[in-house]
Design brief:
With about 180 residues, this protein is an alpha+beta fold. Helices cover about 35% and strands about 30% of the residues. The protein has one domain: Nuclear Transport Factor 2, Chain: A (Roll). It has 4 helices and 7 strands; from the N terminus they run ααββαβββββα. Strands 1, 2, 3, 4, 5, 6 and 7 form a 7-stranded mixed β-sheet that branches. The N and C termini lie far apart (about 75 Å).
Amino acid sequence: MKKIISTLLFAILFIGCQEKVDNSAQEAFEKNSKTVLLNIESWQNESMDYSMYSKDFIMLETGVGTEKDSLTLDDIIANDKKMWEYYDFKILNTPVLLPGVNPDTKMPDGSVRHYSTWQVTLSATDSTESKSGNIKLYESFDFDADGKILYQQVYGDFKGLMMQLHDDDNTVVDE
């Protein structure tokens, strides 16, 4: 009996000394993934709720030859309005969401990355037919402590897409 009690106490002590697993990064990723999916849906529907963005939001400008290296939320709001005026956007696949890591620690941090393919359509005018092109994107979102988008970057061949959509005219809307 003493052996059984000793074994049981040892097992309880061993289990009690086990380090607790920190699931906070996974939980943050799952929560933040919902925000990213809402962001994508809102962009496609031209109905962005910019309250999902932090007041300190910055978007890295990834285009070649751009004037600025980053954009503020006010810049994004103005650019979105301009883009929606000329183009329609439709996501063609379910985005592949991936957990991101802190660049310094290389540990998961609740950030979200995704790959997606979009169809972008230039609306018809009195003198032109509508044109469409597809673009593959890689996008990343980092979040603040309140779960709001703090930092965003997107990579894709936007210049190539614009050249395809505007191949016979000289009007290109900056992205």
